[in-house]
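User: For this week's homework, look closely at the record that follows, marking any run of repeated tokens, and judge whether sequence predicts the tokens.
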Amino acid sequence: MNYGQLVELYFSRSNALQWYWTVYVVVIGGLLAFSSLRQRPDRITGVLVTILYICFAYKNLGAIRDVTYERYAILKALKDAPEPANDVTMAVARQNIEPVLSPPEFEGVKRFHIACDVLTVAALWAMELRRRRAHNERLVAAAVAAPAA
């Protein structure tokens, strides 16, 4: 594999990583929209949605981890690749490209992902508790209004 192909592969893996993050954000948005549109409280639905989300988040983080490690390996291969003989353009490209290729450490990415997961689950259950309180208030209001009628 030549240097140009390695650069192409690196950015291909970067695009894959971007897609995993995009899917992650879209799923969180859809989940919060679904939860905010529900009218009646339902603990079972809340538990099922939470479990499904946690399973999705776990697998998504695993995919992000895999692609991140692939990017590290490709970057190492780029830096270890021999200098191109008599190819001034490639040598200049190499001098300009390699210094800016710095994928983030996975531990930081993992902490960010987990923090977002915790906040998402907290938001889901905050909405569930809000629905439950509103439902109980409606029941109390109906009970108070019923004898007066």
